[in-house]
Amino acid sequence: MSEEYKVPKYYHIKQEIIKGIDNNTYKESETIPSERELMALFDVSRITIRKAIDDLVREGYLYRVHGKGTYVKGDGEQNNLVSITSCTQDIEKLGYTPKRKVISKKVILADVKKRNILNLNENEELFQLARIYYADEEPLNYTTTYLPYKLFPEIDLYDFSQVSLYKILEDKYGVKITKATRTIEAISAHDELAEYLDVEEERPLLQFCCTTCGIVNGKEVAIEYFKCCYRTDKFKFYIHQIR
After folding, report:
1. What is the 3-state secondary structure (H, E, C) of the chain?
2. Residue 155 belongs to a domain
3. Does 160 score more than 90 pLDDT?
4. Does pLDDT of 238 surpass 80?
5. What is the pLDDT of residue 80?
6. At which of 41, 72, 103 does a domain end?
């Protein structure tokens, strides 16, 4: 028996789809044929097609949009890790329509960790804001943000499902954002996080923890700490390096 027939059917289909992506038969940001069309093309079952597609999604070749189809993920630049932009701006730069859903917002007492990060004293308060960001109705990331309440009194009165946090900080509080320090790690989706991002349990995510600084009343101070989890099948980041 030849080697060709020892290759699983789903693997052969994967390679054919990858070949179609590489030769531009399936173009970046466009849909591939439907499951039914692929079943007819390769004369295989829906289970085999789904196995091939699931693998290609996990490997970063494709991504799904609920109710619309499966799309080719491009290699183009998406989000520069060096620049400081809001999640809303990131989504708009990709050509999608941004949407935000507020999961919670409240004023809380700062714990020791966040007091140290944001240079606060004991018994000082934080404004905590948790939101899901959507790109064309698809959940993209889940972000929890903490800001010193003394710097931004009454910030809890704004409707952050309708406005950008950074725009409010700049326009209403006169903040000039200057720099940020980020850490990046891979984590697995779990519990509410998997539910918020509409992914299965244990799906890999990219988690950013970030401290942002800005000029407030003529002085540079830490203005924000946030934790943000991105779907890896929807988003990728790049860094320009120069030698």
Report:
1. CCHHHHCCHHHHHHHHHHHHHHCCCCCCCCECCCHHHHHHHHCCCHHHHHHHHHHHHHCCCEEEECCCEEEECCCCCCEECCCCCCHHHHHHHCCCCEEEEEEEEEEEECCHHHHHHHCCCCCCEEEEEEEEEEECCEEEEEEEEEEECCCCCCHHHCCCCCCCHHHHHHHCCCCEEEEEEEEEEEEECCHHHHHHHCCCCCCEEEEEEEEEEEEECCEEEEEEEEEEEEECCCCCEECCCCC
2. yes
3. yes
4. no
5. 46
6. 72
Q: Which two tokens stand for residue 113?
A: 């960790």
Q: Are residues 36 and 142 in the same domain?
A: no
| Confidence (pTM) | 0.67
**104 CB neighbour count, 10 Å cutoff:** 9
List, for residues 177-197, the tens digit of each pLDDT value.
Answer: 999 888 888 899 988 999 999
